Amino acid sequence: MEDSAIIDLYWAREERALSETDTKYGGYCRSIAHNILKNREDSEECVSDTWLHAWNAMPPQRPSILSSFLGRITRNLSFDRCRRQNAEKRGGGTLPLALDELSECVAAPGRVEQALEAQELAEAIDRFLRTLPERECSIFLRRYWYVDSVQDIAARYALRENTAKSILFRTREKLRRYLAGEGIIV
Amino acid sequence: MKEQSEKLFRAIGDVGDDLIARADAPVRKAPRVWVKWAALAACCALVIGAAAFVVPMFRAGSSGLSKAAPPAEAVTMEAPAEEKMTLETAEAPAEAMPEAAPAEPAEQKTRTLPGADCFAVVPESVTRTAADVTLTNEDGAVLALRSEYWLETQADGDWQPLTSNLLKAQSQTDEAAPEPSVCTLHYDWQPLYGELTPGEYRLAQPVILPDGSEYTLYAEFTIE
User: Fold this and answer.
1) Are residues A114 and A59 part of one domain?
2) Domain containing A17: what range?
3) Which residues of chain B register pLDDT less than 70?
4) Which of A25, A68, A144, A185 should we substitute to test contact with B (largest number of B Cβ atoms within 10 Å)?
């Protein structure tokens, strides 16, 4: 079914919207959840919660790209669940490593640059990513949006693992310089 | 630091939908470097091969054109060569060829002129209205006869064509002389010229050489 037809089902408040969404994007959302949580049950719960959030969001929203809209909900829900689990010492997996890597992009404490709201920071990162070549941008997002492992990224782009690591390292360094150049601290 | 990393992680989550969708699109795998070089090498080989095949064809074609419509200089250079090939100089055909060769060295490669003695009148057959002529074809160089021929007579040291009321179509027309290689052709010129008066004559017979170019053979005879 076309995305626009699925969105119409949400707007018409037809419950078939949920089954159609699960048929088309269930696997996509489960892989995002599993990358973050590394737990099948937790991932399944997050995906179910995603459909509920989508049901509540449409209407009034009418997303232009349904997959990204749903994936973002799953990612945020999974991230929140992972944080709770880490607080309870139950966590693990790829996310902590990804967060450690991202800490390289954070300005050192004590700097006086402007601290931005989350949305402004997202816009700055969006601008930065659009300056990158398509492949570098996608590799960065596979790692820090989809939370793919470095091995999976290397396989996806037919790279050696060290090459993938090297590309990610250089991109993080570029992001750090970009944010510093914009006078942004996180 | 951990909070900042999480803030950054959340911010990355809010980048444009188009970027997120693009990162999930199937990857177009770049061809391996050796594949690109191999493709380039194959293209080069194809071009070189085609050039090696086409350029000689162009050369052959252009030389054929120059034969079909030779420039004025070529005609004037060739005329004396033809005269050398007449029976008049039959005693020294070997010298005649080297003289023509420097004038058109390229043409000599593709055009082998028949020897002067390959076209000769049979003396005992000569009458005032007819004669037999032997045509000798060299191996692998069969000549094709044109349908027309004419007679010339010697006047003031030059060969002048006899005037004729008709253009003669000869019976052995445009056919290659049979191999092996000596054949006798009978020429009856009475319809063209009537009875010849005593004097020196020569019979001019255009032929087509094996390479497709045209040439004129001459055979001299005397009417007593």
Assistant:
1) no
2) 3-92
3) 1, 29-33, 56-113, 115-116, 139-141, 165-180
4) A68
A102/chain B closest Cα distance in angstroms: 6
The Cα B181–Cα B152 span in angstroms is 26
Q: What is the pLDDT of residues B34-48, one digit of tens each?
A: 777 788 888 888 888
ipTM of predicted complex: 0.84
Whether B8 and A67 lie within 8 Å, measured CB to CB? no
A154 vs A46: CA distance, rounded Å: 27
Indicate if A8 and A79 belong to the same structural domain.
Answer: yes
Amino acid at site B222: T
CATH of residue A176's domain is 1.10.10.10
Mean per-residue pLDDT, A33-46: 92
CB-CB under 8 Å, A146 with B1: no
- DSSP string across B138-179: BTTB--EE-S--EEEEEETTEEEEPP-SSPPPPSS-S-BPPS
Q: Cα–Cα distance between B29 and B27 in angstroms, integer?
A: 6
CB of B13 within 8 Å of any CB in chain A?
Answer: yes
- Total domains, chain A: 2
Token representation of residue B108: 């000599």
Based on the fold, state whether residues A82 and A139 are members of the same structural domain.
Answer: no
Task: Mutation target for A interface from B14, B22, B29, B35: give the one with most A CBs within 10 A.
Answer: B14
The verdict on a CB contact (< 8 Å) between A106 and B5 is: yes
